[in-house]
């Protein structure tokens, strides 16, 4: 039985554009969405999806109005990845990732089904829950379409931005290669790499970056993680070390004070301390390091360019 239903929309203004989404009733995880059982043209629902995708690309090429948005569901196989699924559907992986609220390429084992849109674009939630979504909500939304879709059994209010893709920084965040800034505002006084020691004048390797900020400024966790070390070191002064669970660690040194406890779980952006001048320091600043499997990385290659 085929039913035509209207997606529930957030009516922010009387001029909000309404999209019609056609649903099939199935026995899948999300019963209101048509299920694609085979990712080839032997499946009539797959063919219908591909027709919708082609209609979008043709309309975009001709600068015509877009076709209605449709949402489907598919059950990933053990060998599937988000990137392979997106390729089979002729869609950028950003469309499937943002619709399913995935903030990394891994498909969670708890997701028996994934939702698949009929056109490229970004689904930006009204209430962000991850670093990636916090970046997405900052996008201009002049052409966004408000829509409500059930994701993993819960209704989510999105603004759908047709045809848009991840920016370079959003892509890095999705690939778990990007950290957020530990300070809202700062000036880099010493970069990562070899330098002349400000104390001995000898050439030595600087494992992090020195970020100048006002005394007492909040220092933020650059990604969610667990406090694995905290205390006082003769060089780093008051410091905090976070383990982010993916081989990455971040270290914050020369703090004026520490506001987290050992083994505490902290969310990305949480205040973990205050800028200070403790330890072997030439002035008020934050010494910041990022390590991957114990090896120091250049933090400035992993931080967003904004706010520098």
Shape: elongated
- Strand-and-helix sequence, N→C? EEEHEHHEEHEEHEEEEEEEEEEEE
Number of strands: 20
Q: What characterizes the major β-sheet? A: 10 strands, antiparallel
Strand content: 25-35%
How many separate domains?
2
Rg is 24 Å
- Stretches where pLDDT falls below 50 for ≥5 residues? 1-29
Helices, by number, come to: 5
Mean pLDDT comes to 87
Distance between the termini: 56 Å
Structural classification: alpha+beta
Q: State the helical fraction.
A: 10-25%
Short description:
The chain contains five helices and 20 strands. With 308 residues, the chain is of the alpha+beta class.
Q: What this model shows, in words?
A:
With 308 residues, the protein is α+β, with helices and mostly antiparallel strands. The protein has two domains: 2-174, no CATH class; 187-301, Glucose Permease (Domain IIA) (Distorted Sandwich), CATH 2.70.70. It has helices spanning 44-61, 82-88, 93-99, 131-136, 168-174; strands at residues 2-6, 20-24, 35-36, 71-74, 114-117, 121-125, 145-151, 154-162, 187-190, 193-196, 203-206, 209-212, 218-220, 225-233, 237-243, 248-258, 265-266, 271-275, 286-292, 295-297. Strands 9, 12, 13, 14, 15, 16, 17, 18, 19 and 20 form a ten-stranded antiparallel sheet that branches. Helix 2 packs across helix 3. It is elongated, with a radius of gyration of 24 Å. The N and C termini lie far apart (56 Å). Residues 1-29 have low confidence and may be disordered.
